[in-house]
């Protein structure tokens, strides 16, 4: 990569700005001052330092966010806070985006990355990636509901969902705590599936996406980078 392009991508200013930085001798590559703006460097192999600041170059970044309610799964919006607004400023340069979406009032696991190929694999229906949710339903969930989910539920627009797994965790006096596993992500899908059964979702949280499980030590609104093991599981 050209040195001036690298510095511009890393947020050191416009191409014009970074050319001035380079020409005044503020950049060292592997401890050697480089003043040639067109110098080609492999930032994954060389130590690039600008005015004493070492460049932490990575092509792809993968973050796990524990999304809170009230935040939308988008990168920018004029009216609402976006999930990217919750991230540390150091991640701005990577142009991260959410993989899939969680509804505004749904919380839990959300992956953010700039790896478009991985995002496509995780969200494409043909790959049938499991997504596990926990929910509180305003009525008792019955065996008939479980069977309906297993066979696929016809939504209000006539679409029949792919088979889903519904498990009752706890039955309270007038509501049920359940786990739901789906392999697709239609708009408001879980809420619409229960509405088709005459029930309402009162609380919804995503716990898992494929092999990636929510780190329960993350507070709502907190994010961290994936561990090497978590990333390898996703990539494989």
Spans where pLDDT lies below 50 across 5 or more residues: none
Strand tally, please?
A: 13
Alpha-carbon Rg, integer: 23 Å
Question: Oligomeric state of the chains?
Answer: single chain
Distinct helical segment count: 6
Helix share bin? 10-25%
Q: What is the overall pLDDT average?
A: 94
- Measured distance between first and last alpha carbons: 28 Å
Shape: elongated
Reading the helices and strands in chain order gives HHEEEEEEEHEHEEHEEEH
Measured by DSSP, the beta-strand proportion falls in: 25-35%
- What's the story with the biggest beta sheet? 9 strands, mixed
Label the structural class. alpha+beta
Any overview of this molecule?
With 236 residues, the protein is an alpha+beta fold. It has six helices and 13 strands. α1 (3-9) crosses α2. The two termini are 28 Å apart. The mean pLDDT is 94.
Q: Could you give a quick summary of the protein structure above?
A:
The protein is an alpha+beta fold and 236 residues long. The protein has six helices and 13 strands. Strand 3 and strand 4 form a beta hairpin.
Topology:
Elements (H helix, E strand, L loop, with lengths): L2 H7 L5 H9 L3 E3 L2 E2 L14 E3 L2 E2 L7 E6 L29 E2 L8 E7 L2 H8 L7 E7 L5 H9 L13 E7 L4 E7 L6 H8 L4 E9 L2 E2 L9 E3 L2 H8 L1
Parallel strand pairs: 7-11
Antiparallel strand pairs: 1-2, 1-3, 3-4, 5-7, 5-13, 6-7, 8-10, 8-11, 9-10, 11-12
Helix pairs in contact: 1-2
């Amino acid at each position: 990569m050209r040195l001036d392009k690298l510095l511009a991508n890393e947020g050191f200013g416009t191409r014009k700005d970074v050319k001035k930085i380079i020409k005044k001798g503020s950049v060292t590559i592997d401890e050697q001052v480089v003043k040639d703006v067109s110098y080609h460097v492999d930032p994954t192999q060389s130590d690039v330092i600008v005015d004493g600041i070492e460049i932490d170059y990575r092509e792809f970044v993968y973050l796990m966010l524990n999304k809170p309610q009230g935040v939308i799964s988008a990168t920018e919006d004029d009216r609402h806070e976006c999930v990217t607004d919750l991230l540390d400023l150091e991640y701005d340069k990577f142009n991260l985006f959410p993989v899939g979406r969680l509804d505004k009032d749904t919380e839990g696991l959300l992956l953010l990355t700039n790896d478009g190929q991985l995002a496509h694999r995780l969200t494409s229906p043909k790959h049938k990636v499991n997504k596990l949710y926990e929910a509180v339903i305003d009525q008792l969930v019955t065996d008939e509901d479980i069977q309906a989910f297993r066979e696929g539920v016809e939504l209000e627009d006539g679409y029949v969902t792919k088979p889903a797994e519904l498990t009752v965790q706890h039955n309270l006096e007038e509501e049920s705590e359940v786990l739901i596993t789906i392999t697709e992500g239609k708009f408001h899908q879980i809420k619409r599936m229960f509405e088709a059964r005459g029930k309402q979702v009162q609380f919804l949280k995503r716990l898992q996406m494929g092999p990636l499980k929510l780190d329960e030590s993350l507070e709502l609104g907190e994010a961290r980078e994936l561990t090497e093991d978590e990333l390898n599981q996703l990539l494989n």
